[in-house]
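Hi V.,

Quick status before I head out on leave. The structure for the redesign project is tokenized and pasted below; the design run finished overnight.
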């Protein structure tokens, strides 16, 4: 009888799945994340895949990865290095080992480490573990492909279909290692492959085989681990990606406002998933149109806004360049439009599957003329829901286009999302033109806060024309009068300045910090983790993170000038720092900038911030 293993409690663990792009690493990682989120663990994930449509099998450039950080308490990042590395082939082991801790457990498929596999991965000797200085005692080496073939020998599936199930064996082995409930994974697969039950059952059989392999052999490991939830609030949870949360946030805002939701979009990585998700929800009053190009996507949304819908257009950085003229049309027509920019690596095609924060100055200033536009940035995958809802609320209540920034890291990553109660969300009240103004109303008549009234077509007595030419403030007729243009420019700016956003919150040692860390958007988790680590080491550190960038919170200047040392950390060459210097007199921060297409590494942040603090 096999020796019964001790189950050890862990506070957190990082697992990285890696293999060829066709090996299903994203699906395996997603299922493991879902299993963990469902039992109440806090999670943060990072899908990391190549830009190649399909790199050669077994090549170093074609490796796809999925990293998930699971915690008993709150986790803010996918983790710097992993505790468990799944490497489905030789190329995955060679390229992904740098993301593993020195004592990490490594799971490999020995069937994918033959002479040809090693040659493709540029190994020089058959002793691949020795070549990489990997201790064999921490490697779970199993003939994974062979065992999958044996498990599905009587399934009637062809060899190609059988091999597609290899990822599920690795998943089952990882589920055994962390004492996960397989029934959650089984339910996930039965739902995903509801129209192909034979495929679902084959994958379920392979997961069970991987789990049993670990249980029966102990897989050279010494312990099984369990991570209990310590912070879970009562409620229903799901593992949700940032793009899906963004889509749900738009649906919620439209429902709250009593409007139809329209998305005009053109497919572009990494924003396309929002189009895919919204296209599934016609029953909720959602209309999606995949247009012929970026300009058409935005222009169609401007038309939908004029017609009275909550209008959204989605893209990434290159698409923002193309949409800019139509965005400006929404500025001068003063129509509610949300422009979702899922930032990616650039310039040009750049790094389409990688993440940066390099579009900030573009969305603030990258249009002709004076074209003020609110800009927000979601701070995490789960925050994308609230950010999409708030961006929609601002657009509808202030009759303006709004840019919502996310990025590839936030959009493709996921977190444990507590399903919200929409009744707890603030009302959305568009400034419809009052009935009593019938007969005297003109298109640019404004409410008390400077917002143009919205006259939805079809209301008798409120027929009107809008367009890209400047209009007279009083009559709405085309005007080239210099004084009128100056007035309209100032009115459009004042309308944005009047938007009320929450004050900038300071975390950590808010009263007496020796260093203030400043960032925006998707870097929140890494900067927060760096601050927590420095404070645990006895250093006085605070953090201020921007979600609202235009207009800035009213207390921005007082916060930024309160501390002797401030560092602005961002994944660009200093765009937020430049904007803050322009807006806050005398503000001259230190800067930490990386443009690697990868998330920050917490240890690197701590080292850099400590150096600034000690100067």
């Amino acid at each position: 009888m096999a020796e019964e293993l001790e189950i050890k409690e862990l506070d957190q663990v990082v697992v990285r799945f890696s293999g060829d792009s066709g090996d299903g690493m994203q699906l395996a990682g997603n299922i493991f994340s879902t299993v963990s989120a469902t039992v109440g663990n806090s999670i943060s994930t990072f899908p990391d895949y190549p830009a190649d449509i399909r790199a050669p099998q077994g090549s170093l450039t074609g490796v796809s990865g999925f990293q998930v950080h699971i915690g008993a308490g709150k986790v803010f990042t996918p983790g710097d290095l992993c505790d468990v590395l799944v490497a489905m082939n030789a190329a995955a082991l060679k390229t992904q080992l740098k993301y593993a801790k020195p004592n990490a457990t490594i799971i490999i498929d020995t069937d994918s480490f033959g002479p040809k596999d090693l040659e493709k991965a540029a190994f020089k000797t058959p002793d691949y573990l020795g070549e990489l200085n990997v201790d064999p005692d921490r490697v779970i080496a199993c003939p994974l492909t062979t065992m999958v073939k044996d498990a599905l020998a009587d399934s009637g599936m062809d060899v190609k279909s059988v091999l597609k199930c290899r990822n599920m064996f690795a998943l089952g082995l990882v589920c055994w290692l962390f004492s996960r409930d397989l029934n959650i994974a089984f339910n996930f697969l039965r739902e995903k492959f509801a129209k192909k039950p034979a495929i679902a059952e084959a994958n379920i059989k392979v997961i069970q085989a991987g789990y049993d392999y670990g249980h029966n052999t102990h897989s050279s490991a010494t312990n099984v681990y369990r991570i209990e939830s310590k912070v879970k609030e009562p409620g229903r949870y799901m593992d949700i990606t940032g793009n899906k949360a963004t889509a749900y946030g738009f649906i919620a805002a439209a429902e709250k406002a009593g409007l139809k939701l329209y998305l005009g979009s053109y497919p572009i990585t990494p924003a396309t998933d929002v189009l895919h998700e919204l296209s599934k929800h016609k029953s909720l009053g959602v209309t999606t149109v995949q247009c012929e190009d970026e300009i058409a996507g935005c222009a169609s949304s401007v038309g939908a806004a004029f017609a009275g819908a909550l209008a959204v257009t989605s893209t990434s950085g290159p698409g923002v360049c193309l949409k800019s003229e139509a965005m400006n049309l929404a500025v001068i027509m003063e129509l509610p439009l949300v422009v979702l920019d899922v930032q990616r690596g650039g310039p040009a095609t750049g790094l389409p599957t990688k993440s940066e924060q390099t579009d900030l100055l573009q969305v603030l200033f990258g249009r002709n003329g004076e074209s003020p536009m609110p800009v927000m940035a979601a701070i995490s995958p789960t925050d994308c829901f609230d950010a999409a809802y708030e961006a929609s609320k601002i657009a509808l209540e202030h009759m303006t286009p709004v840019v919502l920034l996310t990025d590839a890291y936030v959009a493709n990553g996921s977190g444990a999302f507590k399903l919200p109660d929409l009744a707890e969300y603030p009302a959305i009240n568009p400034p419809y033109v009052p009935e009593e103004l019938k007969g005297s109303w003109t298109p640019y008549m404004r409410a008390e806060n400077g917002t143009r009234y919205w006259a939805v077509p079809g209301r008798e007595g409120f027929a009107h024309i809008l367009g890209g030419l400047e209009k007279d403030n009083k009559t709405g007729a085309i005007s080239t009068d210099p004084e009128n243009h100056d007035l309209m420019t100032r009115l459009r700016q004042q309308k944005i300045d009047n938007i009320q956003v929450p004050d900038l919150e300071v975390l950590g040692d808010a009263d007496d910090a020796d260093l203030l860390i400043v960032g925006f958007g998707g870097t929140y988790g890494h900067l927060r983790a760096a601050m927590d680590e420095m404070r645990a080491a006895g250093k006085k550190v605070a953090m201020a993170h921007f979600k609202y960038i235009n207009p800035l919170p009213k207390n921005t200047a007082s916060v930024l000038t309160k501390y002797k040392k401030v560092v602005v950390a961002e994944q660009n060459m200093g765009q937020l720092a430049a904007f803050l210097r322009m807006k806050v007199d005398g503000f001259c921060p230190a800067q930490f900038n990386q443009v690697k297409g990868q998330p920050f590494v917490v240890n690197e942040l701590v080292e850099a911030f400590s150096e600034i603090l000690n100067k």
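Above is the designed sequence. Residues 21 and 252 are 34 Å apart (CA to CA).

G. will cover questions while I'm gone.

Best,
W.
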